[in-house]
Amino acid sequence: MRETVIVAGVRTPVGRRKGSLASTRPDELAALVLDELMERAGVAKEETNDVILGCVTQSGEQGGNIARTAALIGGFPVTVPGVTIDRQCGSSQQAVHFASQAVASGDMDVVIAGGVESMTREPMFSNMHGAKLSGKLTSQYEIINQGLSAERIASKWKLSREILDQFAYDSHQKAMQAIDGGRFDEEIVPVSVMDQEGNTKLFSIDEGPRPESTLDALAGLKTVFDETGVITAGNASQMSDGASAVLLMSKEKADALGVKPLAKIVARTVVGSDPTLMLTGPIEATHQVLKKAGLTINDMDLYEVNEAFAPVPLAWLAETGADPEKLNVNGGAIALGHPLGATGTKLLVSLMHELKHSGGRYGLLAICEGMGMANATIIEMI
């Protein structure tokens, strides 16, 4: 199997739902990222063998295979194909896995993996058109919404409202410190947007973090899914808009093109998990990917575990024995947002840049997914 390397990565700033990216079409947002990715890599677009993008709500402006339309908008030759996939919240992480498998096998040499989601313009579940779940599914499994799954995880791992709110507060604090310290500047491509007054401006900073957030304010929020529960809008991820992508290729191709790799894919896995608890998959995915890599959790310098809800990374910490100081060091989706299809490669881009800044070697990325699944990826900096 050939060594698969990542030679470039970029993301947009993440916009709040109905925020700065509300007037931007998702296909055009993805096209901007694809164009910028190739510019940063210094690789001609015609070298690309495929464009694989994650997108969860594939309807409206996100329908019709947005990977292909974004590539055409972005100026790629008509000979470059594109495919759009849905692995729920891990869609663009799965795009990385498919791309790296194609490269490692020798089937392709240069592949873009990324994702896009406008939760403003194409609201979550709008592609379902009100359809009900099959009775053949619900007769076998108790299918509940993710918020109730998060409530059950909090109960099972004895995570109190105070613990969850503290985690959420810390996420905002870390994110604001990262923004103030310029930690995200290098990985972001600014987006020209139109404000509510019709003026054009450059949007370049994630707008999810709330400087005004306090523990008292978080404690004052009502629970959303269970009146006697612990999950609120404050300790759950934000609905968001954004796009992200990475460029993968074989080590041989990178050498031939004179491109310096940033990192390599060490191991990857995807698992199915309990569809009722739904959000615990990252635990088993982490165990599996570490085994595949021949490494331990202590070998990892940093981890990104998506903050779909605060109980998810906290239960993951409890079960893996990971170091909390290495987890989501610049904040997570509670503060920075969760543009569903884009989150996987967004987190991967941030993980690579933070490993570069900190001098770390190994990074681990794990994301829980709807209906009980999870992807996990280990990268090594070069």
TrEMBL record:
Q: Does the keyword Transferase apply?
A: yes
Residue ranges occupied by any Thiolase N-terminal domain in the UniProt entry: 5-252
The record's keywords, sorted A to Z, are:
Acyltransferase, Transferase
Question: What CDD domains does the annotation carry?
Answer: thiolase (cd00751)
Q: Pfam families this protein is in?
A: Thiolase_C, Thiolase_N
Q: What is the name of the protein in this document?
A: Thiolase family protein
- Family per UniProt? Belongs to the thiolase-like superfamily. Thiolase family.
InterPro entries assigned: Thiolase, Thiolase-like, Thiolase_AS, Thiolase_C, Thiolase_CS, Thiolase_N
Please indicate if the UniProt record lists Acyltransferase as a keyword: yes
Outline the extent of the Thiolase C-terminal domain.
Answer: 260-380
